[in-house]
UniProtKB/TrEMBL annotation:
Its main location: membrane. GO terms for biological process: G protein-coupled receptor signaling pathway. This is Guanine nucleotide-binding protein subunit gamma. It comes from Xenopus tropicalis. CDD domains: GGL.
Length: 68
């Protein structure tokens, strides 16, 4: 029984290694350039860079009631 489970474990390991070997790889410099380009293209949509409009900010301080 032990050799059968060992065999199935090894089969799973081989399948995982085949999957990892088939992954397309790119150079780090190319990935960094693509990431930088993506960030520059989407900077206008980034709330941390351009801020949030006051009306749609869920973290703003609640207003006090003027009727009290």
């Amino acid at each position: 029984m032990s050799s059968n489970s060992n065999f199935s474990t090894m089969q799973r390991v081989v399948e995982q290694l085949r999957l990892e070997a088939s992954v397309e790889r790119i150079k780090v410099s190319q990935a960094a350039a693509e990431l930088q380009q993506y960030c520059m293209q989407n900077a206008c949509k980034d709330a941390l860079l351009v801020g949030m409009p006051a009306g749609s900010n869920p973290f703003r301080e609640p207003r006090s009631c003027a009727l009290l």
